[in-house]
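User: I'm writing a short report section on ligand binding and want a predicted complex to refer to. Could you take this sequence and 2-acetamido-2-deoxy-beta-D-glucopyranose and write out the structure as tokens? A short remark afterwards would be nice.
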Amino acid sequence: MRPSLLPTLLLPLTTSLALPSPRIKCPIIFDGRVSPNLTLSSFDSNSTSPFNPQYVKGENLTWSSILLLPSSLPPSRFDIAQNSTSKPFEVTINDASLFRSYQGLQTGFRRAGLQFRDDKNVEGADAADRGVVTFHWSVRQDEARGMNLSHEYMNVWHERADYAGNQFTFVGGVVLRQDGGDGVDSEGARRRWTVQGAGNGVVWQTVILEGVWQNFGIRLDYGESTLQVLYSIDDEPLKEQTAAVRNNNTGGGQLQLGMAKKPTETETVVWDGYQEHIVDREGQIYGGVFVEDSSGGCVSL
Ligand SMILES: *[C@@H]1O[C@H](CO)[C@@H](O)[C@H](O)[C@H]1NC(C)=O
Ligand SMILES: *[C@@H]1O[C@H](CO)[C@@H](O)[C@H](O)[C@H]1NC(C)=O
Ligand SMILES: *[C@@H]1O[C@H](CO)[C@@H](O)[C@H](O)[C@H]1NC(C)=O
Ligand SMILES: *[C@@H]1O[C@H](CO)[C@@H](O)[C@H](O)[C@H]1NC(C)=O
Ligand SMILES: *[C@@H]1O[C@H](CO)[C@@H](O)[C@H](O)[C@H]1NC(C)=O
Ligand SMILES: *[C@@H]1O[C@H](CO)[C@@H](O)[C@H](O)[C@H]1NC(C)=O
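Assistant: Sure. The structure tokens for the complex follow:
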């Protein structure tokens, strides 16, 4: 079972922090690139964070205590802007990363997931839920805070407004049987990113790499009911990795991006199972996060 969330509050639209980038060719719907002047405390306030400061995180935790701003990394491909460079950020989890839903504390997960401040959980309420849209993000591994990939990590997903499924899911590690994998721990399964479509079918996989940026794009065509995967490493332009495959993109909803570590030896995924003690924190580094309007065939590569 995929994690379900509380409906989020609707926040007012505010001005974009957009930095002009020679590589971003299409109108930006949601911009999660982090301006150079943002500090950790910027993520605790609606007026300065590109993301919703309330969700989806351990109860009692603030985003300023969850995020890190690694300072010595090269910028990811879409963080390079015309006169300035937006910066990477790292989402971390530890034993306190327990989210309380209306049903109770979700003790099966360790999770911290960012949602765009203006991404509404109402079907059809925002431009990322209609037309043709490409979701962009880059990831990089923190060797000092690596994931334990014997577990399944949901890192990026677009969850339907009714919380009953996702249009797509980007997961790392051994995918649980309940989530469409086989749950079998092996070296190959641990080293893998998997893109799943609606219904959790595997659309595409690649190896989790260390010491480089891995850049992903997921293009959803709502009219044609298709999904297409784009991918590149470091500063290479994105390349199409699949055809536009049929996918059920209905249901609206929100993008979530961060870390949702699933338990092993679990029945319900949400409420039971095994989680080892996390020494310090586990983290996932992100950059170049934005959603663009790909109508008319526009896509930033
Ligand atoms: C960062 O700079 C942008 C662009 O100059 C500005 O709009 C924004 O208010 C600044 N944010 C903070 C937290 O200082
Ligand atoms: C952000 O806005 C929401 C909705 O208006 C409000 O409930 C919340 O307290 C605000 N949070 C912060 C950190 O300002
Ligand atoms: C959050 O704080 C409250 C009040 O101290 C406490 O009862 C609760 O257990 C805390 N939640 C977690 C996940 O530690
Ligand atoms: C950005 O850089 C371009 C070319 O280097 C320059 O013409 C322009 O004035 C700069 N814009 C700002 C806002 O600094
Ligand atoms: C990684 O997860 C597996 C499965 O829960 C567990 O058996 C193992 O002890 C964990 N490894 C570390 C280093 O915590
Ligand atoms: C797409 O998914 C929705 C929600 O589960 C379902 O109601 C609808 O029948 C599905 N459409 C198709 C063509 O399978």
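A remark for your report: The pocket of 2-acetamido-2-deoxy-beta-D-glucopyranose (ligand 4) is lined by residues 82-83 (CB under 6 Å). DSSP finds two helices and 17 strands in the chain.
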